[in-house]
Amino acid sequence: MTETAAPVRRATWKATLAAAAIGAAGGLIVNTVIATAARAMGAPDEFQQLTLAVYGPLTVIGALIAAVAWRLIVNRSRNAAGVLRILVPVVLVLSLIPDVLLLSSKSQPGTTTGGVIALILMHFGVAVAAVPAFQRLMPPQTNS
After folding, report:
1. Which pLDDT tens digit goes with each residue over 9-51?
2. Nearest to residue 118, comparing CAs of 44, 23, 21?
3. In this structure, what DSSP letter does residue 7 have?
4. In angstroms, what CA-CA distances link 62 with 59, 79, 138?
5. pTM of the model
6. For 129-141, what is the mean pLDDT?
7. What is the biggest distance separating any 2 CA atoms in the chain, rounded to whole angstroms?
8. Which long-range contacts (CB under 8 A, 24 or more apart) does 126-129 make?
9. Which residues contact residue 17 at a Cβ distance below 8 angstroms, ignoring those fewer than 6 apart?
């Protein structure tokens, strides 16, 4: 009697695009709330990074790139769950580097600590919206 392995479920492009769309939409909602709260708490109007015209495209592009990367890992790694468990937090922390640099350089008009904290929170907001969608629509395989 031979034992057969369960078939490997691969993430499709349809699932990838759906997950990216959900992540982007959720990220846009969360980021709009964060930007609105930051403005209400005193972030200056000159700080353009808190406008939809700036964070909107970055949110959508980020969710799309993340979904494609997630798909590649799910489809190519024997232990995708383990890889993602490490990679997601590492990439999230690395994505904060431009915000930290912005805070230290104040190279953009209207840069304040509160405004940059809002930008940092936006990264977490997109992750909170996107990762559950990715997990649901492109579930990672675990190394059994």
Report:
1. 789 999 999 999 999 999 999 999 999 999 999 999 999 999 9
2. 44
3. P
4. 5, 24, 17
5. 0.90
6. 96
7. 71
8. 126/23, 126/26, 126/27, 126/30, 126/31, 126/59, 126/62, 126/63, 126/66, 127/88, 127/92, 128/26, 128/30, 129/22, 129/23, 129/25, 129/26, 129/27, 129/29, 129/30, 129/63
9. 67
Cα(42)–Cα(100) distance, rounded to whole angstroms?
A: 19
Torsion, CA 116, CA 69, CA 59, CA 87, rounded to 10: -30
Residue with tokens 């922390």: 93
The amino acid sitting at 105 is S
Amino acid at 130: A
DSSP per residue over 91-105, as a string? Answer: HHHHTTHHHHHHHHH
Res 89: pLDDT: 98
**What is the Cα–Cα distance from 23 to 10, expressed in whole angstroms?**
19
Tokens representing 78 are 């024997």
Residue for token pair 């494609």: 68
